Amino acid sequence: MDHIFPANDTIENGFNAVADAILSLNVAPAPYPEWDAAKGEFTVKSILRWLSSESDGKIYAVDQTLDAVQTLTKSLANADIANPVPSTLLKPGTDPYMGVGPFRYEHVNGYKDAAGAWHITGMRSFGNFSYTDGRDVFALAPVRYVFHGIVDGKYRVACSDRPHVGYVPEDRSLRLDGTLEPFMCRAAFGASKDSSGKPCSVAGAKLWTRSCSHNSMNEAAKKKGTEYSGYTAADYDYLYEMNLLKYAHKSSQANFAGCSNHTEQTPVTVAGTGVPTVTIAKTVADKWPIGSAVMVGTTTVAGRDRGNADAFDIADQANIVKKTVDGDNVVLTLDCGNITTKVGQQVSTAPWNPGATVGIVGDGSPYDNKSGREPLTIQGIEVMLGAWEILGDQLVKGEDDGYGYYLVEDTSKSATSVTSDYTKIFTLPIKSADGDMYPSAMVKGKGSLVPYGTGGSTGAGVGDSIWYYGGKKTGTYEVRVFGDLWHGSYAGLRRADLDYWPGGAGWCHASRVSPNGRNRVNADVPPQAA
Asked: What is the pLDDT of residues 295-306, one digit of tens each?
């Protein structure tokens, strides 16, 4: 197996020093994180000891062909682990990866200070934790050591929670000075906004849409501090890699549809005055799950675009908290307070608000993982809410030879266009017409997963498409991922859309905050031969 090492000697030396420190912590490890009452937080050192005491050092891998075959082969320590059975709120599944090595995670409250240090103020398993009190919720996990490359003729994706020769710390885990993060924290929820305009990762709030774009998300994130940005490609890639390792399938939709086929609009059937309800026909009510969100507008035009003010001027992103059958109708009780509606006004599905998957054990969706109407959670991270999530560290630029993917390593230098701080990591080839391209596989490029081959479809290869313009373009585009209410089988953990400018926003545009944007990426191209 060829070795991969960080390109920078300083990074490598810092990594080795921290790796030695991690190994030394196995001497008399603390059984649980320790609370510092004076500071009101758990000590980072004790969390690191706790993670180290439960690590196993094994290498978990999957091997795949770089063609349209969707199934992968689990190998090394991963070989004999069964695929999880996703859960719902009513029926817990099984997840043999729960609490195992690099697959461990813990929901925590915390923040990163201006010096890049973590402050963990709550842990779900140990106390002082809340999903809803305004403190950010992250999925805390051990730093993974990863390998991408060709082994015995197949492309291997592998990871461990301990250092191994030829493995590097995962992207965004190395700080700018080359030292290693004590653990990784990724936003558990899509971004909402607090009263001061800062983006948050909390349950029970309204998803930030309509004005959320690459530009506006990065600007808002700066209000939280220099360490924060919009969603990073590394955070996005993590989900896909874990899906590969756990489910051994290139397409996430083999197990989770996400909220990707939830497009209904229907008229009010019974008027209401000063009540927190809206009434619709019983025949369509099963398409509106409890916990999902709706828009109610004064428009009576069927199929009215949700971006028009009269499509949401009565209620916008209101959650359904109860459904009551009333003859041929169903009364939807909403959490928006009292409203007044008239017969014929339109009720529309909307992206889900953050927190719908709280209470699910392991990976899964609230009611039905294949319904196409619900978000999912994987590794403690809730995604596919029915809105695109915009990456804060990538832009795509139309060029003579195609569409260049650009990555900014230090997101404090993120801009509204591609600047000298951005590095090209991949080029999508020019094609004759606008439309979707389906990769056969995803491979590691210069700091991010990039598409390989074009032999996929909704039922082959990655299973998710990348939409971009045909012909030569000179514009710059934001990278929108996952899909929205409309995209059905096109959507998933590798779906991308490249047709909006960096300031483009809409009712189906969202993002999430990342505390990892100033950390380094591994820019090395992985080995192409064993």
From this structure: 999 999 999 999
